[in-house]
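Q: We require from you a single protein entry containing the residue sequence and its fold in token form, and nothing else.
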Amino acid sequence: MGHGFIIAGIAFLFIPALGVYDLMPDVIGYALIMLGLSKLAALNGDLLSSKRNFRYLLFITAAKTVLFFPLMNLRDEMTVMLYVFAFAIAETVFLMPAFSELCEGSYYLSSRSGCEIPDREYEDLRLMSRVFIIARAVLVAVPELTVLTNNAYKESVTAEEMERPTLYDSKNIITLGCAAVSLLIGAVFFVLAIRYFGRLAKDRDSVAAIRKRYDDEVMSNRLGRVYSGAKLSSSLFVAACVFLMPVYFYGVDVLPELAAAVLMLFALRGLKGYADKTAAPAAIFAAVYAAASLAVELYVSSKYFNGSYSVSDKTAAAYTVAASVKAVGFMIFAVLIYLFYTGISRAVAENTKAPTFDEEGYKKSLGLKCTLIGVSGIVSCAVSAACTFAALYAPPVRFAGAAVFFAYAVFARVMLTKLCDEISRRL
């Protein structure tokens, strides 16, 4: 019922970050936990609230990942300190209730289903989650705060004071020490999580009872599932379109297509049986390609970026290669938009009913709306791909590509909301 995904998600969280470098991305951990809660949250209010907090954390860490790339090009340690400190606080604010509600909800739901969990295990995990969350935030921020002792940032410092060692001089050692302590605390928390959620997963009678309740209360309402899936998929699809906007800072796209591919994957999965079978593999391929495209872009920006977005004799070849890779990426996303459009078309066609006698004409009008979503998205991809090349010689054209996708995201949001409303009319 999802306990394995929760354990896998926690595995990504307990590995500490080395400064700003997250060795096992938290965004993947939050996504796995949300996947594990996808069914359980429908049966318990605490788990539903926990899933909502993990969704907020997913967006926070996505923004954190987006800002990481231009931050590394900026190479300003004071800005890095503020970046780490701000996101550590933001994550702690949502992580604390997320894990607390996860423990409470899972304990209550399993107990009601016949699973006898020792109170000691539940209390130990809940207490250790709080220790882990606070320690995680403090230990990742402390090494970055040493920049405040750096004499290079101070005014009116004498030559004698410049030679005195500060905490900043030992930043690497402090970082490794904090990472080691964080890893130790995280390991204890992870062991408790495995013992607790492992016990829930192994209790076959309890799992069977929860699954039966889910089938009786949730799966029986097929139309409700279609509506909730279409609504969630629509939101993820619009968010993916936002990440397709080419917005550059210091030569790096701060809204990377990699995030768009991941969001598109979940959007296609949300359509369940209505999406084509090739949709998920296509989205995974897009994510792999987007990661390679991002690597090319980071390499070119770090080695050839000349402070502007126009080409020179030195950068012409490298910039053209990067633009070509990005343009191909837009064409891949055009395919994903087509697959989404066909999936939402099937969902709407099979789950709506005309309020008038003209059933055929009514279905045609809905089909036209779906077609407009697909065609407009494909055209937006083609325009952005063309702007990628044109921007090499006329930098302001780059903003046209961003404007096109922004307009498309707004248009898609309006149209998809109307289509979801059509499904909800039959609930």
In short: Residues 7 and 194 are 6 Å apart (CA to CA). The longest strand covers residues 248-249. The chain is about 75% helix and 0% strand.
